[in-house]
Amino acid sequence: MGPEFVKTVCPYCGSGCGLILMVRDGKVVGTYPDRFHPVSRGALCIKGWTAKEFIHHPDRLTAPLLKSGGRFKEISWDEAIGHMNERFDRTIAQYGAQAVGGLCSARCTNEENYLFQKLIRLGFGSNNVDHCARLCHGPTVAAMGRALGSGAMTNSIADFDGTECILAIGSNAAETFPVPMGELYRARERGARLIVVDPRTTEMAKNADSHLPLRPGTDIPLLNGMMSHILKCGLADQEYIDRRTEGFDQLVAYLKGWSPERAAEICGVAPDLIRQTAEIYARSRSAMVLFCMGITQHVCGTSNVFAVCDLALLCGHVGKDHSGICPLRGQCNVQGACDMGGLPAVLPGYQQVADIQKRNRFEAQWGAALPQTPGQTVTAAMAANDRQIRSVYVMGENPVMSDPNRSHTIEFLKNLDFLVVQDIFHTDTTRLADLVLPAACFAEKDGTFTNTERRVQLLRKAVDPPGQALDDYTILCRVARARGLDFTYADPSEVMDEIASLAPLYGGIRYGRLGSEGLQWPCPDYDHPGTPVLHREQFSRGQALFVVPEYSPPKEMPDERYPLVLITGRMFCHYHTGTMTRRSPFLDRETDRPFVEVHPRDASCRGICNGDAIRVTTRRGAIVTAARVTDRVGEGMIFASFHFSEAPADALTNDALDPISNVPEFKACAAEIVREAACPDH
Amino acid sequence: MKHTDPVDCILCRCHGEIDGVVDFGQLQKQLEDDSRLRSVSVGNALCLDGELESLAECAGGRRPGKVLIGACSFLARGDALIAGLENCGISRDRVFVADIREGCAWLHADRPGKATRKATDIVRMGMTALRHREVSADVNITVQPRVLVIGGGPAGMAAAVAAGRAGVAVDLVETSGQLGGMLNRLSRVAPGDRSAEAILTPLLEAIQAIPMIRVHTGTRVSEIRGSAGDFDVSLASKTGSARLSAGAVIVATGAKPVLPNGQYRYGQLSGVISGMELEKILKVDRSVGGNTVFIQCADVRNSKRPYCSAICCPAALKNAIRLKEIDPGAEVTIVHRDIMTPGHRLEADYRRATAAGGCFIRFSPENPPRIEGDNRVTGIRVTDILAGRERHLKADRVVLGTAVEPRIKTDRDDPVMTAIGLAADTHGFYRVQPFLHTVETDAAGVFVCGTARWPVMVDGAMAQGKAAAAKAMDLVAHPVRKASRLIGFQAVRFACARVSPTTCSGCGNCAAVCPYNACGLEKTEHGLRAAVNPVRCMGCGSCTAACPNGSISLPELGATAMVRMIENAFTAGNLTVSNALNGVADRSAPGCRDRRNGGVVNQ
Amino acid sequence: MTVHSDPGIVQNRRDSEHGPKILVFACRWCAGIGADGAGRQRLPLPADFRVIAVECASRIDPDTVLKSFSEGVDGVAILGCHLDGCRYNRANHATAKRMALLSTLLESVGIGADRLLTSFGTAHEGHQFADLMRRFYERLQGMPQQCRFETDPQAVSGGGVDHA
Amino acid sequence: MLDTVRKIAKGLLGQGTMDGVLGLAVGDGGVSPRLFEDPGDLGSLSLASKWPLAKIAVTVLGQCPDAYRLAVVCRGCDERALIELGKRNRIDTRRLHVIGVACSGEQAERCLCQQPWPSRVDAGVRAQGADLSGNDQVRQYLDSDRGVRLEKWREAFSRCIKCYGCRNACPVCNCSPCRLEDGLWVNRGEIAPDMFSFHLTRAMHVADACVACGACQDACPVGIPLMLLQLPMRAELHRSYQYEAGTESERHSPLLSNYIDEPAGGISIPDWTDSLRKNHGS
Questions:
Q1: Are the C-beta atoms of residues D198 and D162 closer than 8 Å to each other?
Q2: What's the CA gap between B69 and B64, in Å, rounded?
Q3: Mean per-residue pLDDT for A412-432?
Q4: How many residue contacts between A and D have a Cβ separation below 8 Å?
Q5: Which pLDDT tens digit goes with each residue over A540-549?
Q6: Dihedral of CA B520/B524/B527/B529: which sign?
Q7: Residue D51 in contact with partner chain A when CB distance is under 8 A
Q8: Taking CB atoms and an 8 Å limit, are D191 and A181 in contact across chains?
Q9: How far is CA D265 from CA B381, B412, B429, D254, in A?
Q10: B interface mutation test: which of D61, D88, D151, D160 has the most B CBs within 10 A?
Q11: Residue C163 and residue A631: Cβ atoms within 8 Å?
């Protein structure tokens, strides 16, 4: 008769905080933090506390919708699945399996992402599977995979507390990774030094011991400057380098041409500040490097990550307690989606598609042949826009809002023969779809999320999805069975057993063992306790590799027509494309209007006051938004968040890609602002 | 009234008094830059008739907006300016007088630069207060044409007679069996030597003669509900209970004489009696002989009762004269700390007492007189300050001049009176409005007179009774009254609190803190919610301060108006607010409040 | 009697330097009359205080005082009637208690309780009000100033913006 | 200690005197609050370390039918919080039954709690209250001189990420809407909210209702010592009016009454009428 309490994981960022939902008569009526959770320890951020607000929102999709004559009409599930399979078969027949593509989601569970890529590879015979890691930590997977052997975070979040130095490059953790920020502050309370490298004076920069405000896109020169100084002063951990790394000589040769002075010219940070930072980092007994989109979302994103790895390896700060390289994953299960093989070139467990033995194991287990050649990445396909891909199955993604060069994305999706989108709300992408399938949100399904510190945690179903909506696991199984595939699982835990049998990293992970604290992969067998710190004795690839980071400036530098550098990113009370947070009344009330941060000098010479409406234009498009005059951004720089569809930042961003990982350059493009109208007088 | 209504600003030079210090050019420029003011005009002396009205006409000629006047203070001419505008059709709620003379020009004559900046800020704060001002709800009360008088002493009877003669129906309630109160227990009434009956009988006859007065003796007021204009009174007596309604309540419950227990061996020695016992003896037994010593200020004017009872000295003089008349040979002495005999008639009593042979000895409270005698009083020993030596007096009888104390000590002891919002002062006497409002109390429609208000002689009590009657008739005379005009000390009540039931969580803070019991909790469909009695509310704002989320507010000065005034307080002069103490993010929030650009603020 | 001030003489140090900013919440009955009286008696006072008139000191809640401090004010003065002379039947007692508690909080956080002046019944007349303001002004003079007047408006040419 | 509580709970549910018992339960997902309604599954009842249940009890009672009677496994601060909520008509204390559990000594030390036991202790033994003198956070944040204190507090508040966790976790803080989120008092859309209008305002709102349970400090992700904001004010309330939040259910907060009618026997009007004369220390 009274309410129940269900323990689950927060659906927003990669911290994976523990959440307790209070449920009464099939409705979530309360949210409480899980006091004994290993990461969140009884705390939540503003989004975590209000995670329940969008669950029962009236806008939820409740029935499959088929577009005919430009209008959606409700159809039954069988009709929808039948129609979907028929349209995909027609595309395969006409253009071959390679014409089918799929976008899985970093907000769906591991099991759902696994089944999705299995359906695309087995059901449609195409490797064109991708997801929004392509827009964020693609370079990390590529670079750290090659340098260290694994693209994941080397230590745990709790490891920050006790380290001596924290170097945060290109990360606004105070706003985008709020709860683990407490660990950093606890470390500082104990005397650790917090150094923040960020063009903007973010909250974290204000509370840091030293802040290096570099010009956008000039991370490699700065890191090279630091590394050259460390080598010159002989602060490198030579014993560690000899014992555990290779390729050190090419790096030394490359760094000869670099110095703090040269770095200062390019990145605009004072040379002695570079020297001081390098010394602090090298001299401290333990140090953690954490980075995020500021490093990866550049044309030289992969090289940026190589530079970070080289710096850490140079000083021996990898594979030890309180020392490691920590890419902060932005979404609740982007780590899991990558682990589950949601990438065109990789099968579950980062086993290469091109590797015949690995592929044979999967074919033996799945009982059918798999496509040999790696698929196309979503950004490359959209950039090419050569109609190679004809029909796309999108699960839980909103590329129109998240992918760069919005008009280009819309044109690509419009040219498709068939587009089916599976989501919990209508978004800009579902409006372009031919078929829309209603899915279930985090509180309406069982499954597992993997957070940024590789901890696989259990979600528990609290309430039923609204109307005829089904959770993605059930939808995928019904679509697959309709295609004659053997997707018979009693419940998601059996899917995890299959994953464990195929991916060695998840070898020992069973629902029974996840309990309250989850397990950190790699967990090779049943009684393995999980691995808090990677690369302790040996790197996954044996010896760590020094890779020379080639520096290439942002594709689009400021010029007289577009004199300002536009940076895009997130703010503390909204999440990605705003599908969930803008439908949570509390968060929408916190910030309900888009804004662009402008430096006072840039604003004054254009006669812009705080709050005025301004038009931001780039070579790709223009938006009208409100100006927030503040010195959080440096001069000659503006910052826009991309949560607001009424002023979509992705209409401005540059779709130039990083050559290796195809991640677009969100963090730097040239723009201009013009005063539109005075601030509304209220 | 919305905050987007246009605002016209009218500044007054006051013939150089203001613009001698404040630079009107700069002031006008700053105000004209502000987009929230429709027009800014300057007059020489707005209080001279015609000038303000003409300026208001041409400014408000288009759609009638609000008028912001930058001139002198409210107490100086501000009120007159508002009244002037009210005559030509602009209601009080649409006008705000910002004081830039007493509050700025005259205070800072030697700092013209800062005075100008301060004047700009004062006008701007006035503008935000005016923009965000709303109008409180006002209710009309149907007034019951009846007056209830509680207490049948001289004050109550005088009030009843005065009201009854004016044609108002009166209910006179007396707990004891008969009217007259203290008069029944006095032989003679000071000043002069009129007998108590001489005062009492005409009053009783007058009450008999007026049919409008209904007397209820032996009756107690058990409960009073409702508020000014419509009190619902329930009476209780031995014969049963009754209910009646009344438009106004006059409290004349008097006070009770103090029994000086523990003072001067009262209660141990026979012969040591209190003043009231002497009255009883004189009333009955004409032949009272023997030496008598009056000791004044018994158990009063000390830390427990730090006030003078004003009755004991005149009574002592009157009785001393009486004793001398009965037995001229007796020695009558008045031992006192001071003799309080204000006015010519009491002074005459004093002279008659000395003429009759009574002698006066002054003692200091540090060593009071000591009574001698084992079971019957024989004499007293007192150190006479004036003579500087101790004197020994023979006495057959010692009369203690005792004080009068209130019937109740604190509010909580008297639920009937607290329910209607009547409060007691620190000594327990009912509290009247300070400053010139002798008989009005904090509760609208409730008046107090006689010793219930403060110890007073009989003639004073009767005078206060008539005053209370006059005030009560003023309220009861109109069949319908506006709740906002019930307050004694203000022409119009400042505001009446307003509750927004959707945001109120029913915590009861406002009900607990309201000084007038005007705010209470009532059951609604979504639980307990606060509710305001629009008649009792005086607009002080205690409830708004106690309410944690501002569900109850004063519309005339709401939370938005207060915050906007604070924000506009120091805007002129290009203030940057990334301040040392606060030290947090500077004021570049997404809202439109940025004071960097020449102080243009948008609220 | 009109006061014609010769700009040359008067425009001295007192006019340009920026004293601590004080926000005064004056109850309209006692302190309001005191402030008005100070004006009538032309008592010279520093010009860095602003008066907000309220009906009774009981209208002021801690949120209002704290909002004043958050807007960069150096000192807040709450001037009400004598604790047993409040026109609204001892409404100012609740304010006296709340502000005593608030000053404890301000002291424990390090802002300093003497930044909050509560005076009940000591600002009835002009000279009392002026004396109180001067004493509060001196007390704040010795403490770090909350915020800075960046530049005088006259000095800033055109619409140029200063910056923190 | 655990089986005595289980026995009491079984008795209450068995005889039907209570419709539900709110306590902590050990499940496959670790410890979490649970509403036990049939005596059978009391096996999973647990007394893991402190989990403030008062705020959860309010929401549970709000969700249950009016006649629902709830027993709550209460530590000292839970019971005091429920009494304070009863005073503010948030909860009908007649429908509540307290199963008293005393906290251990080091739990009291962690929470800086002076009275780590409820009025009626059914299980556990009364431990000695924490002495604040030793605590170094108290020394830094409260006892150092004014400049150092200000620096420490301002640095702590500048870490705030405005998660509203302190307000959401506080049992006696449940206005809806709340003044901190209406955009008038606190700027919207920026973090590290302003110290005065957010943190000190919240502290003042609960000053006379705070039962020192430490839920706010535990819920703060960036570790701001919020308990130390309340301790000086609780001490002041105790010193001036002998008032302790959550101990006497009939006595309302002294801030709501005037000096004369103060329920604790009336206190004379303070002699200071002008705070400038009062000495505030350095």
A1: yes
A2: 15
A3: 94
A4: 135
A5: 888 999 999 9
A6: negative
A7: yes
A8: no
A9: 40, 12, 19, 12
A10: D88
A11: yes
